UniProtKB/TrEMBL annotation:
Binds 1 FAD per dimer. GO terms for biological process: fatty acid beta-oxidation using acyl-CoA dehydrogenase. GO terms for molecular function: electron transfer activity; flavin adenine dinucleotide binding. Keywords: Electron transport, FAD, Flavoprotein, Transport. Its cofactor is FAD. InterPro entries: DHS-like_NAD/FAD-binding_dom, ETF_a/b_N, ETF_a/FixB, ETF_asu_C, Rossmann-like_a/b/a_fold. SUPFAM superfamilies: Adenine nucleotide alpha hydrolases-like, DHS-like NAD/FAD-binding domain. This is Electron transfer flavoprotein alpha subunit apoprotein. Residues 3-184 form the Electron transfer flavoprotein alpha/beta-subunit N-terminal domain. Belongs to the ETF alpha-subunit/FixB family. FAD binds at R207, G263, I264, S265, G266, A267, I268, Q269, H270, N284. It comes from Christiangramia gaetbulicola.
Length: 317
């Protein structure tokens, strides 16, 4: 009956979002009077998961599962849920999990709620709070199937320490050739920079920066803060920055703890993608820029004066 969590890892390290998923599962398990079981793929040391409330870890070790494979992972997680009698399965909202969760829900004949932002309002009926309309509203969704699959929004619940045993158990799901009809053979990272999806801090530049040659100060700030770099749509459309950095309604979503926007006006389509960021800092020389209405902190000033000064100060910490 335990709550099952899928713990993602990359290059042998657990992803931070998975600790948040485990913390969340611990709270839900407490409400249901049960424990937390995690499933990992090719992870070595899983004891760390105990710190986030995981009581038991099903360790899958299989070379064929070295790289993410939605069909095979889904099949394995389904078998783990059945073995544990899990009625609730929790995943993060990473790109891989967003692909995996609906597949898993179909296999488990479960209701699936994505963008979950809080522990259930009630477990009977099972009702979860979710974001809607690009984070401008919430809805409360009742899931009536016996098994529920939840996708937890990043940074919605936070990482909380809790005591769990993280007792490891080898688990060998039975996988068929069909599970491997599509296979990722290898993954070559294009860059070693922090990705927007994983970043705690994102530093973003807009058309106010005038040209690609002026991004040095943005990259410097990102280096100091260990942040990812991002940009508005016109900036990537003009080729000043790669399309992978475009954030907003038609770009990547941002759910970092801190989002620093430099020379970005704050058009509705931009805000749609960054609403979920916890704290927004805006640097713009126009005091009427719409972004200031959405900002937690604002600096009215010329980016070419403010950002270098800010970088010097940040280096002192
Ligand atoms: P601008 O609107 O040109 O703003 C530049 C800002 O920089 C201004 O506020 C100005 O005051 C400031 N500035 C100028 N000089 C300085 C200086 N020296 N120091 C400080 N500040 C300065 N946009 C996105 O970003 N993401 C999306 O996903 C997206 N999707 C879209 C989808 C659709 C269907 C449509 C129609 C539009 C979309 N857009 C999107 C575009 C969006 O409407 C805006 O045009 C865009 O966000 C504006 O980018 P910007 O703020 O960089 O540029």
């Amino acid at each position: 009956m335990s709550v099952l969590v899928y713990i993602e890892s990359e290059e042998g390290k657990f992803k931070k979002a998975s600790f948040e998923v485990a913390s969340y599962a611990k709270e839900v398990a407490g409400m249901m009077g049960t424990s937390v079981t995690a499933i990992t793929f090719n992870a070595e040391d899983v004891s760390e998961l105990g710190t986030y409330g995981v009581d038991k870890v099903l360790k899958v070790s299989n070379d064929k599962l070295k790289n993410f494979n939605a069909e095979a992972y889904s099949d394995a997680i389904k078998q783990a849920a059945e073995k544990e009698g899990s009625k609730v399965v929790v995943l993060s909202q990473s790109a891989n999990s967003k692909y995996l969760a609906p597949l898993l829900a179909v296999q488990l004949e479960a209701g699936y709620a994505s963008n979950v932002v809080a522990v259930p309002e009630s477990t009977d009926p099972f009702t979860v709070k979710r974001t809607a309309f690009t984070n401008k509203a919430f809805n409360f969704t009742k899931i009536e199937t016996e098994v529920k699959v939840l996708g937890l929004s990043k940074n919605a619940f936070g990482i909380k320490e809790a005591q769990g045993d993280a007792a490891a158990e080898d688990f060998s799901p039975s996988l068929s050739e069909e599970d491997f009809s599509v296979n990722v053979e290898s993954v070559d990272k294009a860059t070693n920079k922090v990705t927007i999806a994983d970043a705690e801090v994102v530093v973003s530049g807009g058309r106010g920066l005038k040209g690609p040659e002026n991004w040095g100060m943005i990259e410097e700030m990102a280096d100091i803060l260990g942040a990812a770099t991002a940009c508005s749509k016109p900036v990537s459309d003009m080729g000043w920055r790669p399309h992978s950095e475009h954030v907003g309604q038609t770009g990547k979503p941002v759910a970092s703890n801190l989002y620093i926007a430099v020379g970005i006006s704050g058009a509705i389509q931009h805000l749609a993608g960054i609403n979920a960021a916890k704290t927004k800092v805006v640097i713009n020389n126009d005091p009427e820029a719409p972004f200031f209405k959405a900002a937690d902190y604002g600096i009215v000033g010329d980016a070419f004066e403010v950002v270098p000064k800010l970088n010097e100060k940040l280096k002192e910490f």
